[in-house]
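Morning - flavin-adenine dinucleotide inputs below, output right after.
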Amino acid sequence: MPASAPRVVIVGGGFGGLAAAKALKNAPAEVLLIDRTNPHLFQPLLYQVATSVLTPGQIGSPIRNILRGQQNTTVILGEVSAVDKDNQCVFVNAADREGVPVPYDYLILATGVTHSYFGHNEFEKFAPGLKSLADAVAIRNKILQAFEQAEAEEDPSRHRDLLTFVLVGAGPTGVEMASAIALLVRNTLKLEFRRINPENARIVLLDMAPRVLGTFDEKLSLAAKKRLEKLGVEVLLGHGADQIDANGVIVAGERISSRTVIWTAGVAPSPAGKWLNVETDRAGRVRIQPNLSVPGHPEIFVVGDTASLDQDGKPLPGVAQVAIQQGRYAGKLIHRRVTDKSKPGPFRYFDKGNMAVVGKGFAVLQSGKVHLSGFLAWLAWAAIHLQFLAQSSLRVSVFLQWVWTYLTGQRGSRLIVNHYGPKRAEAVVDAPLKLTASSK
Ligand SMILES: Cc1cc2nc3c(=O)[nH]c(=O)nc-3n(C[C@H](O)[C@H](O)[C@H](O)COP(=O)(O)OP(=O)(O)OC[C@H]3O[C@@H](n4cnc5c(N)ncnc54)[C@H](O)[C@@H]3O)c2cc1C
């Protein structure tokens, strides 16, 4: 690489950032990819880690391992905290240093989103969201711990709260999580406890919207709702959570007592708009131009969930395909610029469709005029998700795990991983645990 090669800094190694880096593979440029975590994460399967089907290592690969064959690319573990547009540098916090300036000739911001509690940040403490591997493992701990606590609890009147799981938000993540918890209790755990019957667990999925999977066609929403109900999930629509605290959720003035509430509702973009001090949409996503650059800054691109772009009068959705196609486009555009080739036309998103899985052997699929629900949709869902995992080793391992889980009901990782030892549960603090003969 000549010393004069332009430097492309990519912030974020998710779907958008990784696609951009790959598109720059043969570019005469020095590519620097900065991410605050070391894995590239396949977020669509996070719910399977949270519900014990898969292990964290099956849906994430180290970014540097994925890009190991790309000689022009360096991967840095660090968190970007600011951007200086005028001096063309980003500021990075790494393990031992803060605010290290890293200069760029081109910048691609692909920093995704975080949870949004719609102004109720106080809910976060009681209702964790699902965005990272750490979130998924924390939720897995919480779900499995609830069963352990109930088994250890001698007062049956306390079992109900411990075995009530509430999911707030009936989009794809809420629907997939609720159905996966239903399978966990009905198939996997049913023979393993003596004092409790896991099948009696109550699973509640609630949303303010009038239907589940609101972005899908109405018939598919209805099919998904029926399937959820068949699995024993209570679907409460038209009401949000008025209050979430240590004892559960208040919905439409009524309390649902629960020790396990999971937030599967809103997301908010990364602070990219604030770093750049540019126009954002109402949600805070950076408004970008049709070539994905920031107005007035042809050297800065924003892609994926943290960008806002309309196509045919509608904003593009925050889904993996948009991020991948935008990342690829931004990488290609920069490659052409640095090689003085003609620039591509404006970005255009090709919508391949949406899918959501609802338990074993059932999914809904919407792609153009094709609307499908049932086993065929589930097969398509499984094939497409396997195809988009980052590495062949993950594809093989996830495929085998799915076959095993499908045939036996057994899951990949039901470990409660508690690095600092379990906190004493409030439920047993005032009622010391007695191990009687019935509990062996
Ligand atoms: C639970 C869940 C399920 C989903 N299911 C689906 C689905 O079924 N189908 C679908 O199409 N989409 C799904 N999505 C959405 C999809 O995952 C996103 O649209 C996609 O990940 C967006 O890609 P991105 O590159 O914009 O952001 P991300 O993939 O989120 O990547 C952002 C990256 O930036 C890094 N980062 C953030 N801030 C900084 C910083 N300051 N410094 C350094 N690095 C930083 C993060 O660590 C991360 O690696 C799901 C999302 C979630 C959370």
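Note: The chain has twelve helices and 27 strands.

O.
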